[in-house]
Amino acid sequence: MTLESLSQSTPITLIKPETEVVQKTDLLGMDREAMQAYFTEIGEKPFRATQVMKWIHQFGVSDFDEMTNLSKALRDKLKQVANVRTPKIVAEEHSDDGTIKWLLEVDNNNAIEVVFIPEKNRGTLCISSQVGCALECTFCSTGQQGFNRNLENWEIIAQVWVANKALGCKPKEERIISNVVFMGMGEPLLNVKHVFPVARILMDDYAYGLSKRRVTISTSGVVPAIDMIKSELDVSLAISLHAPNDELRDILVPVNKKYPLAVLMPSLYRYVEGGHSKKHVTIEYVMLDKVNDHLEHAHQLVELLGDLPCKVNLIPFNPFPNTEYQRSSNNAIHRFRAILEEGGLQVTVRKTRGDDIDAACGQLAGKVSDRTKRTLHRVEFDTK
Ligand code: SF4
Question: Fewer CB within 10 Å, N- or C-terminus of the chain?
Answer without folding.
Answer: N
